[in-house]
Amino acid sequence: MKKVMVGMSGGIDSSVTAYMLQNEGYEVEGIYLKLHNRTDGYHEKNLGYIKDVANFLGIKYHILDLADEFKEEVYDYFVNSYLEGTTPNPCVKCNRQIKFGAMLDFAKEHGASYLATGHYAKTDGEFFYEADDKTKDQSYFLSQVTKEALPYMMFPLSTYKKEDIIKFGEKLDSAYKRITEKNESQEICFVETVYTDVVKRHANIDMPGNVLDEEGNVVGKHKGYMHYTIGKRRGFTVDGAHEPHFVTKLNPTDNTIIVGKKEALEINSVEIENLNMFIDEKEFDCTVKLRYRSKSTPCHVKLENNKGQIELKEPVFGVASGQLAVFYKDEKVLGSGWIKNTK
Ligand SMILES: Nc1ncnc2c1ncn2[C@@H]1O[C@H](COP(=O)(O)OP(=O)(O)OP(=O)(O)O)[C@@H](O)[C@H]1O
User: Fold this and answer.
1) What is the DSSP letter of 106?
2) Domain limits of the chain?
3) What is the pLDDT along the chain (343 residues), one digit of tens a residue?
4) What is d(CA 162, CA 239) in angstroms, rounded to the nearest whole number?
5) Domain at 3-181: CATH architecture
6) Is 15 marked as binding a ligand?
7) Which atom of ligand 1 is found nearest the CA of 46?
8) What is the rounded distance in angstroms from the CA atom of residue 110 to the CA atom of residue 157?
9) What class of enzyme is it (predicted)?
10) What is the rounded CA–CA span in Å between residue 190 and residue 56?
């Protein structure tokens, strides 16, 4: 019987994942990663749910403390990105370095043939594909995972809708029902409310400064550049403005922000770096997502020396440095790169 390790968070998706794989005949073991202490008793609470599910399934589970790696690779990167005036994507880093880096190594060392998670995405061992439930699809966040990890990955939820997983869990057992009754899913697992609450523990984010127009004229005041991301339209003043103004650029060096009208957010080309490609072609047409939940835009791509240039065939509004450009051919992920500059 083949052994599958399941990354268990104490949430409904991974709990149902473990059940499904056991039902399919795999020998299942769980792994809980200690990544951060968002609130007091955070791990104890999650482990309480995991223990009940593991008892119900009759499986064993491991606890792996990756707090140091997580701090270095994900948390510090997250905070530093805001200090640098870019918009980070911590889940992308976590998937590459932690879940399908360190956790996968652990699973292999413990004799597992596969590592499964409750992510909504598909893989055939060579590529990632979008999940059937497009509203939950997480292929964007997985696109920096190394090619070498793909043959070990399993996503049993890829053909289901999240609401069906919840309904299934409610009926399965009280251990599962209890999980469906907690309502504490965060967009970013270590951010309780808004990102500024995390950043302000490490830096003084309240530093009033000048708002500039595109010509560099002072046109208003802001609360401190770290309060803003590209495309934001509130929380700063623009003297005498009748139309909405949007943040188009952050300047950490002099604590200024540049604003403009909607047209100023229009982007036609994007420079990327630190590529992770699943295909060998260096020049191709495809579609690209420049942030999670944006629609795919047709584009032409040229890659060279771990960098790339994307020419968009239709303009996109409000693209932030630090986010990921993910290339798709229909539902297939071709690869991705980090956004460095936009024009
Ligand atoms: N602390 C953790 N330890 C082990 N695996 C984890 C942990 N956090 C997340 N995972 C795995 O990564 C998957 C996707 O994580 P994400 O944070 O997007 O979860 P989610 O959709 O809320 O899922 P769940 O309902 O299982 O918490 C989870 O389904 C789980 O398999």
Assistant:
1) H
2) 3-181, 204-260, 265-342
3) 899 999 999 999 999 999 999 999 999 999 999 999 888 899 999 999 999 999 999 999 999 999 999 999 999 999 999 999 999 999 999 999 999 999 999 999 999 999 999 999 999 999 999 999 999 999 999 999 999 999 999 999 999 999 999 999 999 999 999 999 987 677 899 998 999 999 999 999 999 999 999 999 999 999 999 999 999 999 999 998 899 999 999 999 999 999 999 999 999 999 999 999 999 999 999 999 999 988 899 999 999 999 999 999 999 999 999 999 999 999 999 999 999 999 9
4) 46
5) 3-Layer(aba) Sandwich (3.40)
6) no
7) 1
8) 24
9) transferase
10) 28
The structure tokens listed for 225 are: 């550049």
Architecture of the 265-342 domain: Beta Barrel (2.40)
- Binding site membership of 8 for ligand 1 (Cβ less than 6 Å): yes
Domain 204-260, second-level architecture: Roll (2.30)
Specify the ligand 1 atom closest to the Cα of 157.
Answer: 29
ipTM over 0.95: yes
pTM assigned to the model: 0.96
In DSSP terms, 308 is beta-bridged to: 272, 303
- Would you call 300 helix, strand, or coil by DSSP? strand
The tokens for 134 are 């497009």
